[in-house]
Amino acid sequence: MPEGPEIRRAAFEVEQAVKGQTLVEVYFAFPHLKEHEDHLVAAKVEAVRTKGKAMLIHFSNGYSIYSHNQLYGKWMIRKAFTYPTTKRQLRLALYTEKKAALLYSASDIEVLKTDELVNHPFIAKAGPDVLSDDVTESLLLERMQSSTFKNRSWSALLLDQGFVAGNGNYLRSELLYVAGISPDAKPSECSDEQQHAMAEALITLSERSYETEGITVSHPLANELRNAGKKRRDYRHYVFNREGKLCYACRETIVKVTKNGRRLYYCPYCQ
User: Fold this and answer.
1) Which SMART domains does this chain map to (predicted)?
2) pLDDT of 14-27, one tens digit each?
3) Which of 40, 116, 129, 184 has the CB geometry, 3.0–4.6 Å to 165, for a possible disulfide?
């Protein structure tokens, strides 16, 4: 599933393709959305924003498209009325004279009045998004120390979009590693140092992943491994998807476990 950084990058690309442009056609695959095609094509895209893993496309006529990629959704930018070779099903398309923003495979798509988005079930429950909202380490510390979140395991909390929106499975493993926290620990069991490390990591890792198209290791380490001839899969993450390989810091073997129904990777020594 694409996580916050991937959706934020996709939003940037969609915005670059269609913002301020006259749309010559809008296409929805789902019958219940067909009625919106004509009145959206008459408007212009004013902004493309995100809230966690949801994308919000705002139009000048006071309407917005809400979409959530879920497991398999994928945005693609192409020349107008040209299409990639794919077995995916086209669900939504925005066409200008020169560009097309195409959403494949996603099924969670809605058209809402922009001023009603705050009442959407996902948006209403979502926590702060570090890539779209004004999020500080102090705010994150307050949340992890609150009665709502402090006694939940980190492995569950980091997947909860109500805690911080946009985190997913690869970020969960990477955040715990960078903060030096056991997957079984709770915020209330962590030291002040660990809590501050997590607050910092929640911001920096999402920003780094967004900037580098999915790389969470530090820039110096990525460069070192790349220069040593390692492939991208070997220098992308500290622990995620690295079961049986050596930790870059301590040389202990990375372990894979299942937490909350999803795979999680960690270093038994560093965490």
Assistant:
1) Fapy_DNA_glyco, H2TH
2) 999 999 988 999 99
3) 129
pLDDT the model gives residue 239: 98
Helix (H) or strand (E) holding 138: helix 137-144
Mean pLDDT value of segment 36-64: 95
User: Is 8 assigned a catalytic role?
Assistant: no
Helical packing angle, 192-212 and 169-179, nearest 10°: 130
Cα 63 vs. chain centroid, distance in angstroms?
Answer: 23
**Spatial contact of 25 and 93, defined as CB atoms under 8 Å apart:** yes
Which pLDDT belongs to residue 171?
A: 98
Catalytic residue chosen out of the listed positions 116, 125, 262, 268? 262
Alpha-carbon distance of 121 to 123, in angstroms, equals 6
CATH assignment at residue 10 = 3.20.190.10
**Do 69 and 48 belong together in one domain?**
yes
- Which is catalytic among the residues 9, 53, 99, 236? 53
Which of the residues 3, 6, 15, 174 is marked catalytic?
A: 3
> In this structure, what CATH number is given to the domain that contains residue 208?
1.10.8.50
Compute the average pLDDT of residues 119-142.
96
Q: Tell me, yes or no, whether 114 and 185 share the same domain.
A: no
Q: How far is CA 30 from CA 41, 74, 109, 186, in A?
A: 17, 17, 9, 43
Question: What average pLDDT score do residues 94-113 get?
Answer: 96
Does one domain contain both 154 and 226? yes
**pLDDT on residue 71:** 81
Q: Is 3 a catalytic residue?
A: yes
pTM of the model: 0.93
Q: Is residue 101 part of a domain?
A: yes
